[in-house]
Design a protein that fits this description.
The complex is a heterodimer. Chain A is built from 6 helices and 13 strands. By secondary structure, chain A is α/β, with parallel strands linked by helices. Classes of the chains: A alpha/beta, B alpha/beta. The complex binds flavin-adenine dinucleotide (FAD) and adenosine monophosphate (AMP).
């Protein structure tokens, strides 16, 4: 069984982003980028399922500009067998990404399609669910455990109330949550090996995908900041401060 | 005129508290607000929804397949009802339920989604957070209907003072059989619900064990507070996943928040930006949490917390 894994290049989670003063967006030039952390978890899961013999081939896919090749190389270093680069220099919003991934799905016919639950740049949390809808396939989002069986998978999901378990037929769309696994550290030999693995280039046009009407970003602003408050010395000071504010 | 369909989240025959906040957001759109209850038997939930101030109608769609409100099963029915009712907007709460469901609805309707609406400027113009809340974008959509999730921490629940009529509806949508509910392992707790509590006490990695978390619970109980945690505390297994506060956990807006043994990573701060008063207790005077705390106390939490609990 083949697994597809969608990986997105995003501003690294450790970067404190700066909003541009003209309101046109955040500063991304000269800022460290990495694979979206949830997508690393998706790659790691694909690898673990492969190591368990549940998956035979892993194909990583991204939609984005030339720089996204780095992200595909990272996926190949994780252990993906090959990669697909849907080249698009413009902004790619979730519905368009989902359409492109659906087109790739139809070409590749995987048994499972793993994605991150949320890209930490736009924080949309939409693409996997849209992809599942477009393909009329089951969705198991926010997964913290994936057990692949015969033609089916049992997936435990992190939900507000606790942990929900679903059984889905395969093929299925799975989105990863933080507790699914801890991604491995990439070793130099794997990074070297990744350089020789194949990346197929394609485009939205080649895939016959029409970009969805975008949600237009009118402006970007910095949030109302919180200012540093009072440092207190003792527990008694804290109790007094809370009482003065009428909080206790 | 606008008509907003608000999807009712519910469990065990009770309406989820987030729905009253989604209705509050829908009120900013203007026009009609119809609350759609999908259930096996939605009578009690529909009756509760009918009381939401601002709701003009409650639509009750009963179907045995709706028992667990699985996204794959309810989404086609919602898309169907949205079309037949001529909805201009379809809103869901920004809970894991809404986040799982609404993009599926949007894709079935062939429209993009606006996630985590925090303010409404116009019926098609909204503010939403990106980059863990470090950049707020104002977005405009030309799609119809407008499908969105509502950031619950940004809206005050509407009162339970209304009396909307309940109308039974049905849908001819074909429902998939590829997804089955197996079970829900829910933490039963006598404490207030984390997402709607007025006071929240959270512990971080510094607690170092699930046993040590008892000092957090003791403080919370003294205050009548809900208990939360950082990702590190959840990852380490000290507390269950549903207690994670932050960018990728629960976004909360209590009157009073205690961050105890939590460093204040941007991902954690994303979940507490709307708290009215933040108290931080940390042994490291340089911890970033102090940059945003209203009251800070430097020291060992294992001494400070029990002392605080006894003095309150
Ligand atoms: C994709 C992604 C999503 C994430 N989502 C979230 C999220 O939703 N929520 C979240 O919380 N995090 C999230 N994180 C993780 C986040 O980056 C931090 O790693 C995490 O918040 C750290 O948790 P912590 O503050 O408990 O631990 P640490 O950063 O290790 O901090 C522990 C603190 O305890 C203090 N301390 C230690 N001992 C004592 C003592 N005896 N008394 C007092 N203080 C003491 C230390 O000084 C330190 O400041 C996410 C990360 C990623 C990559
Ligand atoms: N442009 C893209 N290329 C590849 N994968 C993507 C892209 N956009 C979204 N995804 C996948 O969808 C997940 C959720 O993204 P989002 O819906 O944008 O929050 C990500 O974690 C990726 O796995």
């Amino acid at each position: 069984m083949k697994a597809l894994v969608a990986v997105k290049r995003v501003v690294d989670f450790n970067v404190r982003v700066q909003v541009k003063s003209d309101g046109s967006g955040v500063v991304t030039e000269g800022v460290k980028h990495s694979m979206n952390p949830f997508d690393e978890i998706a790659m790691e899961e694909a690898m673990r399922q492969k190591e368990k013999g549940k998956i035979t081939e892993i194909v990583a896919v991204t939609i984005g500009g030339a720089k996204c090749e780095e992200t595909l190389r990272t996926a190949l270093a994780f252990g993906a067998d090959r990669a697909i680069h849907v080249k698009e220099e413009g902004e790619v919003q979730p519905l368009t990404a989902a359409r492109a991934l659906a087109a790739v799905f139809k070409k590749e016919n995987p048994g499972v399609f793993l994605l991150g639950k949320q890209a930490i740049d736009d924080d949309n949390n939409q693409t996997p669910q849209m992809l599942a809808a477009l393909l009329d396939l089951p969705q198991a989002t926010f997964a913290s455990k994936v057990e692949i069986g015969d033609g089916k998978a049992k997936v435990t999901r992190e939900v507000d109330a606790g942990l929900e378990t679903l059984e889905v037929t395969l093929p299925a769309i799975v989105s990863t949550d933080l507790r699914l696994n801890e991604p491995r550290y990439l070793k130099l030999p794997d990074i070297m090996k990744a350089k020789k693995k194949p990346i197929d280039a394609t485009s939205l046009g080649d895939l016959g995908v029409q970009a969805a009407p975008p949600v237009k970003v009118v402006k970007t602003t910095a949030p109302a900041g919180r200012s540093k408050g009072q440092m207190l010395k003792t527990v008694d000071d804290l109790v007094a401060a809370l009482k003065t504010k009428g909080l206790v | 005129m606008s008509k907003t369909l608000v999807i009712a989240q519910h469990a065990d025959g009770k309406l989820n508290a987030g729905v009253a906040k989604a209705v509050a957001c829908a009120q900013k759109i203007g026009g009609d607000i119809e609350v759609l209850v999908l259930a096996k038997d939605g009578s009690s939930v529909a009756a509760e929804a009918a009381k939401l101030a601002g709701a003009t109608k409650v639509l009750q769609l009963d179907n045995a397949a709706n028992d667990h409100n699985l996204a794959a099963i309810v989404a086609p029915q919602i898309a169907d009802v949205a079309k037949s009712r001529g909805a201009t907007h379809v809103f869901g709460p920004g809970s894991t339920f809404g986040k799982d469901l609404m993009p599926r609805v949007a894709a079935l309707l062939g429209v993009p989604q606006v996630s985590d609406v925090m303010a409404v400027h116009a019926p098609n113009k909204f503010d939403r957070p990106t980059y863990a809340g470090n950049a707020i974008t104002t977005v405009e959509t030309s799609a119809s209907p407008v499908v969105a999730t509502v950031r619950l921490a940004s809206f005050q629940a509407v009162a339970a003072s209304g009396s909307a009529a309940v109308e039974k509806v049905s849908s001819g949508a074909t429902l998939p059989t590829h997804t089955t509910f197996v079970g829900l392992a829910a933490q039963k707790s006598e404490r207030p619900d984390l997402q709607s509590a007025g006071r929240v006490v959270s512990g971080g990695r510094a607690l170092a064990s699930s046993d040590n978390f008892k000092i957090i619970y003791a403080l919370a109980d003294k205050l009548g507070a809900a208990v939360g945690a950082s990702r590190a505390a959840v990852d380490s297994g000290y507390v269950p996943n549903d207690m994670q506060v932050g960018q990728t956990g629960k976004i909360i807006a209590p009157e009073l928040y205690f961050a105890i043994g939590i460093s204040g990573a941007i991902q954690h701060l994303a979940g507490i930006k709307d708290a009215r008063t933040i108290v931080a207790i940390n042994k490291d005077p340089e911890a970033p949490i102090f940059e945003i705390a209203d009251f800070g106390l430097v020291g060992d939490l294992f001494q400070i917390v029990p002392e605080l609990t006894s003095k309150l």
